[in-house]
Write a structure and sequence with these properties.
single chain; 494 residues; alpha/beta; Aldehyde Dehydrogenase, Chain A, domain 1; Aldehyde Dehydrogenase, Chain A, domain 2; 2 domains; seven-stranded mixed beta sheet; six-stranded mixed beta sheet; 24 strands
Length: 494
C-alpha cells in the first residue's frame, strides 16, 4: 500500500486548486511548488508554493515596518479585525472544515469542531484586545519615593515567528496569530507543509480587513528556511508547536528572543477503584483514538487499580470496537488515517518492539492501508518507545497498579508533562493528583484530551515552555513598561 501511495500522486477528485502564498499582503508564487495530498488515499488535493530566503527576508522586513502602525492602532480596530475573521470562519465553516479533512485527514465531524474552536479563539482574542490593562504601583516605600507613583502598561513585543503543526492546521495557528494581532504584533506564520491550505484561505479573510500590509505573512517553507526565521534577530518572539526534539533545538537557535513551546507528551490517566467503569471506558476510547491519536494530549498510558483492571480493560475493548474506522469524509468516521507513510512505519515498528519486549496486543496492532488499527497493549515495559515517547498514533498502553498513588507515581515517571487525567469519586484524591502530578493540567473524571481555548495550556519538563490560551499567550507577547510620575500629595483640609 505504501508503494502504491507514492506512485499514485494523481490529482484527487477532491482537488481544491492552486494557492499562491501570502507575503505581506500580496499573493505570490515561487519556483518551488508544493503538493498537498489527501492522507486517506495519497492523491493530490491542492498545490501551493514554498517560500525561500528572499521571500522570508521580505516578510520579516515588512513585519518590522508594519509594527508601529499595528501597535498604534486603537484596540477596537484590532478587535474588529479579529472579529471579522471569526465571522468569516462562521460563514465558511463547511468549506474550511472540508479543507482540514482533505489535507490533514481529520474526520469531517472533528474538523467542524476545530472550526468552531477557531471561531471562539478569534472571538476571545477580539475581546482581549480591548482589555490589555496595566496598574498603578505605589512608590512611597522609602522617603525617596514620596510624591511619586508608577504607572505600568504592557506593550507589544514586536514581530512574531509562529510555527504550527499539521494536526490542528486551523486552531493551533490561530492560537499564535490571534493573540499577536490582538496586542499589535505582526506575525510571520510558517504553516506545516502537509497542511498549508487552511491558513492560506484564512489569510483571505485578513486581507478583507484594515490589517496593515506586512502585519501577516503565511509562508510554507522548508526546514532550512524555517531555521532562518527562528534565528533572525528582527523577530522578537518564537511560538512553536510540534515535537519536543525539534522544539528544544529551535530554542537553541532562537537567541535572545522570547520563546513559547508547546511540545506534546505521552499523556497518562489513572482510573481508581471507585470510578464509573462505563463512563471511564467510553471517554478513554475517545481520548486514545480520536483523530488516530494525532493529538498532543491523546491518552497514551492508562493505569488502572488492580481491583477493576480486568473489568475496565474489557469495557475499553468493547468501546474501542464501536469506533468507525475509515474515510474521514464520511460523517460517521471516528478513526482516520495517519498523516503519512512515515508515521505508519514508525508506529508499526514501535508496536513490534513492544511485543518483542513482552507486551501483549489486547486489540488491534495491525496496519490496514493508510490506517493503523486502534490498538491496546498491556504488559508493556516502561522503556519501550510506545510507552516512553510520544506515539502520536492510535495506540494506548494499559497497566494494573496497586493503588491510586502508584498510578500518580507512574504518570510522573516520564520526561513529559503536558496534561493528565484521573477518574475518581474521592475529592481528596483529585486534590492529591492536582498537587502531585508534574503536568500543566489535570482533568478530573475525564481524559487529558480535554481543552477549552480560554484555559492556560502548556506543559512542564520536556512538554514545553510557557502557556497558550489567549490571555496567557498575550502575557508572553507583551512587555511591561513603567512610567514614574510625580504628583501633588498636599492635604487640602476641610
Amino acid at each position: 500500500m505504501a508503494t502504491q501511495q507514492v506512485e499514485k500522486r494523481a490529482e484527487s477528485k477532491y482537488i481544491m486548486g492552486e494557492f499562491p502564498i501570502y507575503l505581506a499582503g500580496n499573493w505570490v508564487t515561487t519556483s518551488s511548488q508544493l503538493e498537498v495530498t489527501y492522507p486517506y488515499d495519497g492523491s493530490v488535493v491542492a498545490y501551493t508554493y514554498q517560500a525561500g530566503k528572499q521571500e522570508l527576508d521580505k516578510a520579516i522586513t515588512k513585519a518590522q515596518e508594519a509594527f508601529y502602525q499595528l501597535s498604534s492602532m486603537p484596540s477596537f480596530q484590532r478587535a474588529n479585525i479579529l472579529q471579522h475573521v471569526a465571522s468569516r470562519l462562521r460563514e465558511n465553516k463547511e468549506d474550511i472544515a472540508r479543507t482540514i479533512t482533505l489535507e490533514a485527514g481529520k474526520p469531517i465531524k472533528d474538523a467542524r469542531v476545530e472550526v468552531d474552536r477557531a471561531i471562539l479563539t478569534f472571538t476571545l482574542a477580539a475581546e482581549e484586545a480591548k482589555r490589555i490593562h496595566g496598574e498603578v504601583v505605589p512608590l512611597d516605600l522609602l522617603p525617596s519615593g514620596l510624591n511619586k507613583i508608577g504607572i505600568v502598561r504592557r506593550f507589544p513585543i514586536g514581530p512574531v515567528a509562529a510555527i504550527s503543526p499539521f494536526n490542528f492546521p486551523l486552531n493551533l495557528a490561530a492560537h499564535k496569530v490571534a493573540p499577536a494581532i490582538a496586542v499589535g504584533n505582526p506575525v510571520v506564520l510558517k504553516p506545516p507543509s502537509k497542511t498549508p491550505i487552511t491558513w492560506l484561505k484564512v489569510a483571505r479573510f485578513f486581507e478583507e480587513t484594515d490589517l496593515p500590509e506586512g502585519a501577516l505573512s503565511v509562508l510554507p517553507m522548508d526546514r532550512n528556511t524555517g531555521d532562518l526565521l527562528v534565528s533572525d534577530e528582527r523577530i522578537k518572539l518564537l511560538t512553536f508547536t510540534g515535537s519536543d526534539v525539534v522544539g528544544w533545538e529551535l530554542k537553541k537557535k532562537a537567541g535572545k528572543k522570547n520563546v513559547i513551546l508547546e511540545l506534546g507528551g505521552n499523556a497518562g490517566v489513572v482510573v481508581d477503584k471507585d470510578a464509573d467503569i462505563e463512563h471511564a471506558s467510553r471517554r478513554l476510547a475517545y481520548g486514545s483514538f480520536a483523530y488516530a491519536g494525532q493529538i498532543c494530549i491523546s491518552v497514551q498510558r492508562i493505569f488502572v487499580h488492580k481491583d477493576i483492571y480486568e473489568d475496565l480493560k474489557a469495557a475499553l475493548v468493547e468501546q474501542t470496537g464501536k469506533l468507525k474506522v475509515g474515510d474521514p469524509l464520511q460523517e460517521d468516521t471516528d478513526v482516520s488515517p495517519l498523516i503519512d507513510n512515515r508515521a505508519l512505519d514508525r508506529v508499526e515498528s514501535w508496536v513490534q518492539e513492544a511485543v518483542q519486549k513482552g507486551a501483549k496486543v489486547v486489540t488491534g496492532g495491525k496496519r490496514n492501508g493508510n490506517i493503523f488499527e486502534p490498538t491496546i497493549l498491556e504488559n508493556v515495559p516502561e522503556d519501550a518507545r510506545v510507552c516512553s515517547q510520544e506515539a502520536f498514533a492510535p495506540v494506548v498502553v494499559i497497566s494494573s497498579v496497586e493503588s491510586f498513588e502508584d498510578g500518580l507515581r507512574a504518570i510522573n515517571r516520564s520526561r513529559f508533562g503536558l496534561q493528565a487525567g484521573v477518574f475518581t469519586n474521592d475529592i481528596s484524591k483529585a486534590t492529591l493528583a492536582f498537587n502531585a502530578l508534574e503536568v500543566g493540567g489535570v482533568v478530573v473524571n475525564d481524559v487529558p484530551t480535554f481543552r477549552v481555548d480560554n484555559m492556560p495550556y502548556g506543559g512542564v519538563k520536556d512538554s514545553g515552555l510557557g502557556r497558550e490560551g489567549i490571555r496567557y499567550a498575550i502575557e508572553h507577547m507583551t512587555e511591561y513598561k513603567i512610567m514614574i510620575l510625580p504628583y501633588d500629595n498636599r492635604d487640602l483640609g476641610a
